[in-house]
Write a structure and sequence with these properties.
mainly alpha; 4 helices; 2 domains
């Protein structure tokens, strides 16, 4: 009987040792993974202008920029439709100068509208990147768990 008790203790000791080794491997691996993911996150922090905003505020801001983008695109399309087509020599210097000025104003309006579209698209893209990063990383304890477990 004493032999059975000793064998059971010996087997339990091996199981406990295996469990300790497993926990040690998981702790070291998780710590290294957490450190690596934290360094990647820190590297991207400098390019996050909306980092301090609340997620709800970012979603509202993105919706506002998206509606502004639709408006700016409509202005761009309107400017392209108003483009002045030169009709060649109008017969007088004053007429040619007036035609040139009209064409120049229309071209400037198109360039300005195109710049506004590009700027609005970039703002929406920045907000999309920030929201995607927050969704990927999570917040609070969920963020720490993702840093710990994401490979």
């Amino acid at each position: 009987m004493a032999h059975r008790t000793h064998a059971a203790r010996n087997q339990a000791g091996r199981a406990t040792g295996g469990l300790i080794v497993l926990l040690l491997v998981l702790t070291v691996g998780g710590g290294a993974n957490y450190y690596r993911n934290l360094q990647i996150e820190k590297a991207t922090e400098s390019s996050r202008p909306y980092q301090s905003y609340a997620t709800h505020d970012l979603e509202s801001l993105r919706a506002a920029y998206a509606s502004e983008l639709a408006s700016v695109r409509a202005s761009f399309d309107s400017a392209k439709r108003r483009r002045a087509r030169p009709s060649g020599d109008v017969g007088s210097i004053a007429g040619n100068v007036e035609q040139f000025q009209k064409t120049t104003r229309a071209s400037s309006a198109i360039r300005d509208a195109a710049a506004n579209v590009a700027q609005s698209e970039e703002r929406v893209a920045e907000l999309d990147r920030e929201l995607a990063l927050r969704e990927q990383l999570g917040a609070g304890w969920a963020r720490h768990m993702k840093l710990l477990t994401t490979i």
